[in-house]
UniProtKB/TrEMBL annotation:
Belongs to the FtsZ family. It comes from Setaria viridis (Green bristlegrass). It comes from the Eukaryota. Residues 117-311 form the Tubulin/FtsZ GTPase domain. SUPFAM superfamilies: Tubulin C-terminal domain-like, Tubulin nucleotide-binding domain-like. This is Tubulin/FtsZ GTPase domain-containing protein. Its main location: plastid. It is found in: Plastid, Chloroplast stroma; Plastid, Chloroplast thylakoid membrane. The keyword Ribosomal protein does not apply.
Length: 474
């Protein structure tokens, strides 16, 4: 449904874009006007735009006239229906709009829109495998890199050779870190200049790795720290080892996560053991590892799609930065559903995800994305929003994105990132003068004592009923 944009007294406006009364009318936005969005001058075309409004003698659009019944929607979802107070309506003949679009493209650089540049860096064997899966899934809008000390493993990746970064060539001679995080750390330090060149120009960097080994555990914190020191929004998404991988890898993973936490804006830790609650007991080992890689892929895609893929609601990169910058430890939930109540069920599945060990009502920020096919309706989006918004704190900062993907016809998928747990608990600790463990800031499913020593958690009833992993905790 077209948003509306009204121009009045255009002839008196000193508009740098050269729009005149001859090519700007006062009717609804037509088909050719959507060429504006295709030319990507700025995100969302005219939607919620203030760049094209004339400040002199301008007036807002009158009440929206439609035969449709006005839904009682959440404020963010109502934007889908064109109910933006600052919105207005542009229209004219096809050639007039096309001509205006050409002038937008040729506008001075100060008026052009620069798309956020997102890079995904897989560190070590686990991180590289996750990136390989992202490439195989035809994930768009991001630039992929793999970083490793093992030259032979890098050669097997489908990624472009120029985006393969071998670190620690003098230290390891391309033979890997041998499961030693210290070697991985020193290898990353040795190749610091190459890492800086790899992340240069990015607005957002995802650092993904499988913790517990050598290169990923030791190298990921160094690489993330370099990106963050360059002013780049840095998000870490890592996995912890399965219990059957041994105690040594579990301890190394703990140390690596502690180091990584201080070098990223947002850290999402995915315990591999919890993934086993979603699969059959007869699941092969190879499939279990593939599932871990796929969860990393879904986490990265759930966030990046909000920024890079044009959707029903266009989200500014600045909005995402406001929620994820210096957010500390975060949690991720993923839900998929089909059927008549698929959107609501997908939202419930995301909230009840085994990856969420505590309730999202404690989060100070929520980033959530709903993906569906061409059959996704506004009512379904609103149903999913009601489930999430009714549970979170009213004061939480929520960022919502919606993406249409034809391959999702018949189903709905929701990815939810809950942030700000660390900041909230630190505030509670200061106010109560209770002191406490310095590690209490991260989420409960990482620290084995956080649920015993930390403040009481208000866990929803359906989360209390959710079964937990039968495997021993790290």
């Amino acid at each position: 449904m077209a948003a509306q944009l009204v121009f009045s007294n255009v002839s008196s406006c000193q508009c740098p874009l050269g729009i005149s009364p001859k090519n700007v009318g006062n009717t609804l936005l037509g088909e050719s006007a959507r060429n504006f969005q295709r030319k990507k001058w700025f995100s969302g075309g005219f939607y919620r735009s203030s760049r094209l409004e004339c400040s002199a003698n301008s007036r807002r659009a009158g009440p929206r006239r439609t035969k449709d019944t006005l839904y009682d929607l959440h404020p963010e979802i109502s934007l889908l229906y064109g109910e933006d107070n600052g919105a207005a309506s542009v229209s004219s003949k096809e050639q007039g709009i096309d001509a205006a679009a050409e002038r937008l493209v040729d506008a001075p650089a100060s008026y052009r829109y620069n798309e956020p540049r997102i890079k995904v860096i897989g560190v070590g064997g686990g991180g590289s495998n996750a990136v390989n899966r992202m490439i195989e899934s035809s994930m768009k809008g991001v630039e992929f890199w793999i970083v490793n000390t093992d030259f032979q493993a890098m050669r097997m990746s489908p990624i472009d050779p120029e985006n393969r970064l071998q670190i620690g060539q003098e230290l390891t001679r391309g033979l890997g870190a041998g499961g030693n995080p210290e070697i991985g750390m020193n290898a990353a330090k040795e190749s610091q200049e190459l890492v800086e060149q790899a992340v240069a120009g990015a607005d957002m960097v995802f650092v993904t790795a499988g913790m517990g080994g050598g290169t990923g555990t030791g190298g990921a914190p160094i690489i993330a720290g370099i990106a963050k020191s360059m002013g780049i929004l840095t998000v870490g998404i890592v996995t912890t080892p399965f219990s059957f991988e041994g105690r040594r890898r579990a301890l190394q993973a703990q140390e690596g996560i502690a180091s990584l936490r201080s070098n990223v804006d947002t850290l999402i830790v995915i315990p591999n053991d919890k993934l086993l609650t979603a699969v059959s007991p007869n699941t092969p080992v190879t499939e279990a590892f593939n599932l871990a890689d796929d969860i990393l892929r879904q986490g990265v895609r759930g966030i990046s799609d909000i920024i890079t893929v044009p959707g029903l609601v266009n989200v500014d990169f600045a909005d995402v930065r406001s929620v994820m910058s210096d957010a500390g430890s975060s949690l991720m939930g993923i839900g998929t559903a089909t059927g008549k109540t698929r959107a609501r069920d997908a939202a419930l599945n995301a909230i009840q995800s085994p990856l969420l060990d505590i309730g999202i009502e404690r989060a100070t920020g929520i980033v959530w994305n709903i993906t569906g096919g061409n059959d996704l309706t506004l009512t379904e989006v609103n149903a999913a929003a009601e489930v999430i918004y009714d549970l979170v704190d009213p004061g939480a900062n929520l960022i919502f994105g919606s993406v249409i993907d034809p391959s999702y016809t018949g189903q709905v998928s929701i990815t939810l990132i809950a942030t700000g747990f660390k900041r909230q608990e630190e505030s509670e600790n200061r106010s109560s003068q209770a002191g406490g463990d310095s590690n209490r800031g991260h989420s409960g499913w990482f620290s084995p004592t956080s649920q015993e020593e930390g403040p009481a958690l208000q866990i929803p009833e359906f989360l209390q009923r959710k079964g937990r992993s039968g495997f021993p905790r790290v």
